[in-house]
Structure formats: structure tokens, C-alpha cells
Amino acid sequence: MTTSLLLPSPVSRPTSQSQKKVVVACTHCQLPVPSGLLVQGVSEQFCCTGCQTVSRLLHAEGLEAFYAICDQVASKPLQARSINDDFTEFDDAGFHASYVRDLGQNIKEVKIILEGIHCAACVWLIEKLPVLCHGVLDARVQLMGQQATIRWNPEQTRLSLVAKSLAQLGYLAHPATDERRVAVQQRENHSHLLNLGIAGLCAGNAMLLAFALYGGLFDGISPEHATLLRWVSAFLGIIALVWPGSTFFRGAWQALRTRTPHMDVSLSIGLAAGAIMGVINTVLGTGEIYFDSLCMLIFVLLIGRYLQFRQQRRAAESLSLLRSLTPRIAQRVQPDGQIVRVPTSSLRPGDEVEVRVGDLVPADGIILTGRSTLDQSLLTGESVGVVIEPGQIVTAGATNLSAALRVRVAAIGKSSRIGRLMDLVESVSLARAPIIELANRISGVFLYVVLFLACCTLALWWSAGPETALNHVIALLIVACPCALGLATPMTIAIAQGRAARQKILIRQSDVFERLQDKGMLWLDKTGTLTEGKVKMKAWHGNKEIMPHVIALETGIVHPLAQALCQSLRERLGEQVAVPTVQEQTYEAGMGVHGKINHLTLHVGTQAFLIKHGIEIGMEHTGQVEEYLEQGWTPVYLASQGKLLAVAALGDTLRPEAYSSLETLRKQGWQIGILSGDHQAVVSHIARQLDVPAELARGDVLPEEKMTIVKNFLPQGQKVVMVGDGVNDAAALAAASVGIAVHGGAEAALQAAPVYLGRPGLEPLVELFDGSKRTLNAIRRGLIVSLAYNLTAIGLAIAGCITPLVAAILMPISSLTVTLLAIRQHTFTRKP
Amino acid sequence: MSVMYLALPIALLLVGAAFMAFRWTVRSGQLDDLDTPAYRALFDDESASPKQKDSGDPF
């Protein structure tokens, strides 16, 4: 069964009709295998040596079932990494002192966060770590929070080796910090669960006793048995009231102190009145006791609260922002010129560090030596690399693309630019005003109405004697308790969140639905949201015969534009094209490349690059170049033997469904704008294609400016939704009424935004708006039904018709109806 | 004397025992992670079946 999965599955990629190309998927990670690595006549093909190693390892240890599980849960293995990092900081004595627990008898335990855990198959693989890594005794994964607890024998292995094995499988280990916060949450979770347990036990048993008592009403019961049952009920009721029920009394006290009407107030009055009357009647041995209803009420309400708590906890557990953006390890240059690997956290301003090609810059600083290209998309959102020279400033988190750099550290960690930006994100997220929930608002009003009606009832029945009058009032207060009301909203929201998650729309805050109901301004980030985010060759003007030569020259150049040009040309010409060999190749960072192929001298690069090499730019391409620039594309000049032969245009592609999705959103009443760090020309061009008015298409926006625009563009109080994917959007996402991070976004964006769309494109966005409207409708329906129940019951209570039997039937039925309504809601169901 | 006077205290004791058991499960962290065990249950079958084949009689 598993063997068929291990064969390479040919995946045909959509290509133009002129050429048919079969892309072979990597046996391990399912990514396409580069044509150069294809091995003829072998069933297993790999995209890199890392994947090959991991696959061999899994087969050798008899863990092939991993692939079957991946297939079963519709997930893919991570691309394996070839690791040239030996994780020495995991063996550091300081590290052990702060993160590792010694359990004695040669067992040590560490809790780590593993970047990349995303599905059930990951859990399976990591828990098989003892098989893969000698000396590891036990590995337990906690999917929520991406954490793993690992126990190992320090005599048989070192933690750095364990971390290396994990990294090889594709999971990067970080020490789990914030032990204290985790401990606090754990305690809170335990107390929630214990409260729920006690309330459940009391409710179940009080109900059983109530059945006996009701049965006694019809068939007769001896007075001493009735008294016993009533006393036991009272005992259970009082336990439920003073232990788990104290949550509501504390909430009510808080609400009274801050003078905000809250559901807890009306609940507490009902609970207290019921309990006092119940105790009096138990002692007197006459009249109604309400303990069964009281216990049930507490239990059901606590279920609602627990659901809410779990959602909040899920939202809070994630990687720390800063750690995921900056590298773990830096290469520090010692005064004697030696290079040592140190944890980034131990860098100090004034240190000299080396940043190799492909590495992330560990700290803010000034370049001492080296000219290179930096990918600063983390901060600017711009997909094209930036050329940098000695004396210029680099920021932490940027990727070094083309040559090694020496950098003098100026600011690290929290004081670096990215650190300050993340601080901003966190403070904005915290400062958001708490939204009073729909149910709380209603029950605030409800409280006053019920109290007023209770007075009316008392007045109405006073003539029948104080005893009867008081009985009816208590019955009213109990029956009017918004039991179903308290359950309806959290239940509906929890179910909608679950359904949305199945559609890969993660909603982390429960008030998102409410905040999306009023239409307002919708800001979209250009890269990744509206466009594919991948640069491709869009046009070619001039001699086509030099295309293979260009491929040859650009292969191996680490620059996004060079790689994009190379790949697009390969796709256009097909894999079979004969690529000549390069005799000479000189690359000038950020300018271009020139070289010799079959005694032809070739130049590929910017206009400035060609002029520098004395190549004349004639008039024949000028018109075309202007057109490219207007489209927002980047022209690349190609010359052979000192003569300009062709111009290629590179640019980003608009997502196919972008226009129709925006049209749908506009019809729903959203005003749409673009907010991007890209050049104004590019943004304006895209805005024109999508009918976005010119004044709402903002380019060249810095991350901090994005936040200001999101905050201040509309008058206070109006809805602003921000959709983005980059770290540069994070502050704006946090500042918006609702921030929506999109597929493939940076970890920081995910953390800042309460909503995450796990599928690419704008369709899930439309689905989200649609779904949240339906969810709100479902919530309203639930509220109306439970209110109707309560009003009917109140009417009956005022009329004095509530017998214990009616009350006992009405209470659970209302909760049951509301639960059923919540389950049967039609939200986030995929259209056929 | 009715059996009720014996049965009810026993029932209450059972309730207390149930609560102590529940408290133990909560305190020992068995209910901390409610997501992963659902998947883990799937895997045990996966890994157990080939082992059974290995150890089992071929005929």
C-alpha cells in the first residue's frame, strides 16, 4: 500500500500548449525536482540531498509509514534541510541551566518549540525520534503551540545532535521561553476544568434526586424520604454555588464596581435568590427547592466559558515574534580575526559580524566591507533586492543575497528596527478596546427588565399572601435566567470557528464576526494578496536567438531578477533546449553580469550597466522600454558583441480572480484601497487594472506609515480591515479593526492578525465575509430563540403557572434547542 | 430504617471518589492537550500493524 506512494508521481504543471513538460515530484517533499538532478531509470527522485538523506533514513529505520500518514491527512512532508549548523548553543552550560530539567538517573528533559510542526504526520514523525536518534528516550508533541517535550540520556547523546536530527527532518528547534506565562495558563486551564468537573458532578446528581422528587409528586413519597432528598439536593447545590458558581459572583462584583451591566449580575441575583429561597424551603420542609436547576445552570454556563477560554488560549500560543524573524546564530569576528559562531542574543553593539550569502542579517549595523544585494522585503515588502555598499546601514532580518559582508553591529534585539516594529505590533494589539459582546449587551438590558417584572409580580401576587408572591418571584428569577442566552453565542462562535478552520480560514478572536458586520474601508497589501508575489518574465523585445545564451549566463547568479529571468526562459524554451557552456562570467552586484560564450561577449543587466561597458542604447527599444516601465515592469537589457539586441521585461502577475473578488466585495459595500511598500508606479498600474481609485492606491509606504494610514484614514470608530502578508504589514494588521493575514505570510503577520487565510488568493476573503455574516445571523437566531423561551417562561411565571415540573422541562429544552441551532448553522460550508 | 439512609451516603461517597479521580487527571496534566491525542490514536494502529505482522506466525 505504501510502495505506490513512494513512486515519483508525475505532476503536470499548467504550461503553454506549444510545449508539454512533465515535472517530477520529489519522493520526499513532493516539490518539483530540478531537471539537472533527475536520475534516469530510478523510481525515487529527490529535489535535494537533504530530502534524499531523510528518505533513506526513514526507510532504513522502518518508518516509511510516515508517507502513508501524510497522504492520509492530506499533508506534505517539509522539505528537508541540508544542515551546516551544528547547534552548539544547545550544549552550552547556560542553556542547560535555564531550559533543561535534570530528572536524575541520567535522564534530562527539555521543552522546545519546533518551527514547522503543522499536521498529524509531523506529530507521528517527531514522536518516533527515539528510533532515529540514539539516546533519545521519549518525545511528546503538543500540536497546539508547536511544542515538543524531549527526554534524553546525556551519556548517550548531546542535545545539539538531537536538534540537528530535528533540523534535518525540516523542524527548526527553539528553546521554549515564557515558562511563567505557560505556567499561569496551565493553572487557569486546570481551574476551569476542575470547576467544570464539580459543576457537572453536582448537576448530574442533583438532577437524579430531582427525578425522584418529581416522581414522588405523582406517585407519593414518604415525608422523611422527601426531606432527606431535599437536604442532599441542598448540599450539592450549595457546593456547586460556592465553588464553581463563585466565578459568576466575582464577575458580577467586578461589573458592579466598574458600573457596566453584565450578564453575571442578573445571573448572580438569580442564583443567590434561588439558593436562599431553596435553603429556607429545605429547612422549613415546604415549597420548592431549585437546586437541580441551579446546578444545571452553572454547569451549562461554565461550558460556554470554557469554550471561550480555549479559543483565547489558542490565539495566545505561538512563536515569539522577534525570534522567528532574526537568525539564531551570528558569525562574530574576534579581535584576532577569527570567526566564532555565537548565539545572536550574545552580540553587543560594536561587535563585528560576518554575514554570508543566504544568511539573515542578525542585527542592525553599518557595512564595513563587501558589496551585495539585500532582500529587505521583511521591512519594505518590496520583492526586488536592494544594492548595498560599505558605509550603508543594514537592518536585522534582511537576507544577504549575493556576497559576504562584514557588519559593525549598532543595535540588537529589541532595540533594532525590527524589534521596535514588533514592540509596536504588540502594544497596538494590547491597546485594542475590548468589545462588549452581543449577548452581554442584551443581558444588560435583560437584567433591568427582569428586575422590573419581578417587582410587578410581587405587587400582583401580594394579595394572595407574601409566601405565594415570593414563590412566584423566585420562579420568575430562575426561569428568566438567560441560561440558553449564555450558551448560544459562545457555542455558535466555537462551531463557526471550527468550520472555518476546516476551510483553512483560521479565526483566532471570537469577536471578529461582530467586527466584520459594518462595512468600511478595506486596505489590501499588493504583494502576495493581489499578485502572485513571484517575478516572471512578462515580455521580450528583440532578437530571440540569444535566449539560450542568457540562460547560460544567468544560471548560478544569486539575484531574484536573474533567477526569475532564467526560470521564465527555461519554461518558455522547454527543458530540452541546448544551453551552451559559459567560458567566462563576471557578476557585478545589483548591476548585471557579463561573460563569454563560444567567443561571443554577452552583457545582461541594467541600462547603467550597459552604458558603463560602452554599449550604445539605440532608439529602437526606447518606446518598448517606456511601455514596460509604465506597466510597472523592470526592463533588463541584453547585448552581444557590444550591441544591444533585446530588452526583456520582468514583473509580478496579478492573481486571476483578483478583479472578480474585489467586485464582489465592492458590491457588499466595502471601499477598497491598496497600501504597499512597492514603487508608486507599480501600485498605480495594478490599481488601474482593478478599478481602484488613484487616491486610494498608495505606494512607497513604510511599515510605520501603513499603521498611521490604517488608523487615521477614516474618522474614529469606522471599520478598517487590513489584508496583508508581510512583516511590514504587521503593525497595520494589529491597528486595524480586523487584521487578516494571507497564505504564505510571515509569522509576525500571522501573530498580529486575528484572522489567517490558509488558501492563496482573494476567494477565502470573500468566503470569510460571507461566513461571518451567516454566523452573526446564526447568533441572532440563537439569541431570539432563547429570548423567546425566557419571555414565555416569564409570562407563565407572572401568571403564576410555573410548576416545578414545567420549569424542569423548560430549562433543559431551551438549552438543547439553542445547541441544536448552533450545530445546524450553515456557515463556512464549501459551495459545490 | 430505610435503605435510603445507607444508599444515599454511599452515592455521595462515590461522587466524591469520582471527583478525586477527575482532580487527579487534571492535576497530572492528562487534559492539558486535547488536540494531539486524537491524532496519536490513529498512529498507534499504523505502527502496531507491521509489528504484529513481524512477530506473527507466517502461516
Description:
The complex is a heterodimer of chains A (832) and B (59). Chain A is an alpha+beta fold. Chain A is 48% helix and 18% strand. Chain A is built from 31 helices and 29 strands. In chain A, the strands form six sheets. A seven-stranded mixed beta sheet of chain A has the order 17-29-28-27-18-25-26, sandwiched between helices. Chain A has a six-stranded antiparallel beta sheet with strand order 9-8-10-16-11-14, with no helix packed on it. In chain A, a hairpin with a 2-residue loop joins strand 3 and strand 4 (107-115). In chain A, helix 9 (223-242) packs antiparallel against helix 11. Chain B is mainly alpha-helical and 59 residues long. Helices cover 75% and strands 0% of the residues of chain B. Chain B has two helices and no strands. The longest helix of chain B has 24 residues, at 4-27. Chain B is elongated. In chain B, 0% of the residues are buried.
Please write out the topology.
The complex is a heterodimer of chains A (832) and B (59).
Chain A: H1 3-6, E1 10-11, E2 23-24, H2 49-60, H3 65-72, H4 93-99, E3 100-104, E4 107-115, H5 120-127, H6 129-132, E5 136-142, E6 147-152, H7 159-169, E7 172-175, H8 179-219, H9 223-242, H10 246-257, H11 263-284, H12 291-316, H13 321-325, E8 329-333, E9 339-343, E10 352-355, E11 364-369, E12 372-375, H14 377-380, E13 386-388, E14 393-394, E15 399-400, E16 405-411, H15 417-431, H16 438-461, H17 466-479, H18 483-502, E17 505-507, H19 512-515, E18 521-524, H20 526-530, E19 531-542, H21 547-554, H22 560-573, E20 584-588, E21 592-597, E22 600-605, H23 607-612, H24 622-630, E23 634-640, E24 643-654, H25 658-667, E25 671-675, H26 680-689, E26 697-698, H27 703-712, E27 720-724, H28 730-735, E28 738-741, H29 747-752, E29 755-757, H30 763-798, H31 804-823
Parallel strand pairs in A: 18-25, 18-27, 25-26, 27-28, 28-29
Antiparallel strand pairs in A: 1-2, 3-4, 4-6, 4-7, 5-6, 8-9, 8-10, 10-16, 11-14, 11-16, 12-13, 12-15, 17-29, 19-24, 20-21, 21-22, 22-23, 23-24
Helix pairs in contact in A: 3-5, 8-9, 8-12, 9-11, 9-12, 10-11, 11-17, 12-18, 12-31, 16-17, 16-30, 17-30, 18-30, 18-31, 21-22, 30-31
Chain B: H1 4-27, H2 36-55
